Structure formats: C-alpha cells, structure tokens
C-alpha cells in the first residue's frame, strides 16, 4: 500500500514535472517569438526613423530664413524686443530663423549674451520654424565647445563660419579637417557659412564641399560669396544629404534655378512674405512673375542694405513694424539723411504709407 502510494506520488510528481517543463518551454518559445517580433518592429522603426531624418533635413532647410538682427538699446540687448520680432515673424511664411549670424552682429556679443539670444529665440519661435544658430569660432575646439553649450536649447542646426584669422593658411586641407573635426563631435548637424567679404577673403572651394558633403553630420552650406552658386550645387555628390542655401537676395532666384533649396536673406527681416513669394512662384512654375519680383526686391535691397549694411536693415525694420533698433559699436547708426532715403525708398515701393 505504501509502495502503491509512493508510485502514485512519484508518478504524479513526474507528470507534474513534465507538465511544468512543458509550460516553461511554451513560455520560453512564446517569449522568443515575441522578442523576434519586437526586433523586427524595431528594425522597421529604425528604417522609418532614418527615412524621416533624411526627409526632415531637406524639409527643415527648404525655404526662406531670416538672419535675425540683435536689437540694442543704449548698446544693451533688448531681449523683449527680440521676442516681439520673433512673435511677429512667426505668422509669416518663413521657414525659420538664423540667429547669431552677420546680421545678428554675433562678433559683438559675449558668449553669455549669445546663449541668452538663442534661448530667447528658441522659446519664442513657433514649433514649425527651423532654428539655425551661428556657433563658429576660430578653432575647431572652441567651435565644438560652444556648439555643445547651445545644442540642447532647441537648435536644429549649427551654422559654422569659415575660420579666417589665419586666412593664408586656410587651404582646402585645413578647412576640410576643421569642418570634419567639428562635425564628428557636434551633437547637432552643422551647416557651412561661406561669406568671404566678412571672413578675411576665405572662400571654401567646391572641391572641399564635394568631400565635406559626404559627412553624415554636415548637411548644407549658406553661400554668401560672389561666386556662381551653381558651383556648390554641382559639387555635391549624388545621393549626399547636403543642401545649398543662397545667402543673399541677389543670388536667391538664380540659386533656385540651379538647385539650391532656399535662402537666408537679410530682407526677410522686414519683407519676409515677399521673399518667400519668390520661391512660391518659382515652385509653381511662374518663372516670369518670380523674375519680376526678384528684380524688384534686388533693387530695394541695393538701396537699403546694399549701402548701409546691418544698420540699414535695422532702419527698414523700424519703419515696417519690427524692432531693428541701433547697431552696437563699432558699427555706427545711419545718419538722418540716410534714414530719410530708406524711408523714401520704402514709400516709393508702396511698402510704407
């Protein structure tokens, strides 16, 4: 009897044990299947995210950007007026903003001021606007360190001016190494800023662009040179995620014709929608209308910032409902007769009553 009980007990134990093992095996199999399914989903997601990233870079850079001015009152930055400018520009057709560029007088700001400008713009801009910030310094190290400081403030792309203090040494080799080092260590994608007239004559070559365009963290160039913008467009290797933006109204339409995808235009600070309209007309195939509007804006630009630079852009802004305010020394404000001339130009174009 005891034997029978033991056999039954052992049998039950064996059955239960195998049943238990079977349950565990089934669970493990289910876990493995679920794991594999998740891995496949993750792989799909990664591909989709990569596709989205590729698409969003072009999308984020396509259109017109205002290179924001920094409003000074008694030589101090008026962050409140900067905020008001952004809030007004948010309702325009602009794709976004570039802060701490030439029009922002970035060379005249301390790092602390520059960071506060970026924070102000980032907090004030609408979510649909792309934000670029000038982070270029004369060394790769300083550029990387400053870019790291501002990367978490909502900046989409860093705009890095060509180093130029040692202008005669800025060969293709030096510039390629500089931008590669910055891009390797930048937490956000970078764009190249080429403006020889403000950079001691340093002009990055199409050959250098053809190499740098292949770097996954270098996504574009703002061309403010007097060179043919098509040379940069044609230098980009097929398939590279790298785009060209015009740096002035004078070459904006020409750039669109040759494959550029947008522009960073000082006029966009005071005539944002008219600047955007050029690209809209071009995209709609209304080339004659685009040409006519482009010629009109180029003439206005010549009479405004073509003569007075940043100070003149600020005056035009003051007339048209924005806060340009004064420049910071060593830039001098315009003289009264120069201000009146800009007022006359704007009135003559029906832009000011």
List key phrases describing it:
353 residues; alpha/beta; TIM Barrel; 8-stranded parallel barrel; two-stranded antiparallel ribbon; globular; disordered N terminus; lyase; 4-hydroxy-tetrahydrodipicolinate synthase activity
Give your account of this protein's structure:
This protein has helices at residues 2-61, 79-89, 111-124, 140-150, 172-185, 206-212, 230-235, 252-258, 272-283, 287-303, 305-319, 336-348, and strands at residues 63-67, 72-73, 76-77, 96-99, 130-134, 157-161, 190-194, 218-223, 243-246, 262-264. It contains twelve helices and ten strands. The protein has a domain at 62-286: Aldolase class I (TIM Barrel), CATH 3.20.20. Helix 5 (172-185) links the parallel strand 6 and strand 7 (190-194). It has an eight-stranded parallel β-barrel with strand order 1-4-5-6-7-8-9-10, surrounded by six helices. It is of the alpha/beta class and 353 residues long. The protein is globular, with a radius of gyration of 28 Å.
Largest sheet: 8 strands, parallel, barrel
Question: According to CATH, what is the class of the domain at 62-286?
Answer: Alpha Beta
The CATH fourth-level homologous superfamily of the domain at 62-286 = Aldolase class I
Helix content: 40-55%
* Number of discrete helical segments: 12
Structural class: alpha/beta
N→C terminal distance = 115 Å
- How do the strands line up in the largest sheet? 1-4-5-6-7-8-9-10
pLDDT < 50 runs, ≥5 residues: 1-55
Tell the overall outline: globular
Keywords: Lyase
Organism: Thermoanaerobacter wiegelii Rt8.B1
Protein name: Dihydrodipicolinate synthetase
GO molecular function, one term: 4-hydroxy-tetrahydrodipicolinate synthase activity
């Amino acid at each position: 009897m005891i034997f029978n009980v033991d056999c039954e007990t052992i049998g039950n134990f064996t059955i239960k044990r195998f049943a238990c093992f079977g349950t565990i095996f089934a669970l493990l199999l289910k876990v493995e299947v679920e794991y594999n399914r998740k891995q496949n989903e993750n792989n799909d997601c990664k591909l989709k995210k990569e596709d989205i990233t590729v698409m969003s870079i072009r999308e984020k850079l396509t259109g017109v950007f205002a290179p924001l001015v920094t409003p000074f009152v008694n030589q101090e930055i008026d962050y409140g007026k900067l905020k008001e400018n952004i809030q007004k520009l948010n309702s325009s057709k602009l794709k976004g903003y570039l802060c701490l560029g030439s029009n922002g007088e970035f060379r005249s700001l301390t790092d602390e001021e520059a960071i506060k400008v970026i924070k102000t713009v980032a907090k004030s801009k609408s979510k649909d606007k792309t934000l670029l910030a000038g982070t270029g310094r004369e060394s790769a190290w300083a550029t990387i360190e400053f870019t790291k400081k501002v990367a978490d403030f909502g900046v989409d792309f860093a705009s890095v001016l060509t180093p130029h203090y040692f202008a005669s040494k800025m060969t293709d080799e030096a510039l390629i190494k500089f931008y590669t080092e910055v891009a390797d260590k930048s937490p956000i994608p970078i764009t190249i800023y080429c403006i020889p007239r403000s950079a001691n004559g340093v002009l990055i070559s199409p050959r250098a662009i053809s190499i740098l365009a292949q770097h996954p963290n270098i996504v574009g160039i703002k061309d403010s040179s007097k060179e043919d913008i098509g040379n940069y467009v044609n230098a980009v290797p097929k398939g590279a995620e790298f785009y060209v933006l015009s740096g002035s109204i004078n070459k904006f339409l020409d750039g669109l014709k040759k494959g550029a995808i947008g522009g960073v235009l000082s006029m966009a600070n005071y005539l944002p929608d008219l600047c955007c309209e050029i690209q809209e007309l071009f995209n709609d195939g209304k080339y004659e209308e685009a040409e006519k509007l482009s010629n009109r804006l180029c003439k206005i630009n010549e009479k405004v910032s073509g003569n007075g630079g940043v100070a003149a852009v600020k005056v035009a802004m003051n007339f048209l409902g924005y806060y340009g305010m004064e420049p910071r020394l060593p830039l001098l404000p315009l003289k009264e007769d120069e201000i009146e001339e800009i007022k006359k130009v704007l009135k003559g174009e029906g832009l000011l009553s």
